[in-house]
Amino acid sequence: MIDVKNLTKEYGTLKAIDNVTFSIKKGEVVGFLGPNGAGKSTTMKIITGFMAPSDGSASVAGFDVFENPIEVKKRIGYLPETPPVYADQFVTEYLKYVAQLKKVPKEKINSFVDRAIEKTNLGSVRNRLIHHLSKGFKQRVGIAQAIVSDPEVLILDEPTVGLDPKQVAEIRDLITELKGHHTIILSTHILPEVQATCEKVVIISKGKIVAQDTIDNLSKLEKGQGRIFVRLRKEVSDLKSVIAGIDEVMSVDIGNNNREWRIDYKGDEETIDKVSSKIVSNGLGLIELTPSRVDLEDVFLKLTYGMEKGGKHV
Question: Model pTM greater than 0.85?
Answer without folding.
Answer: no
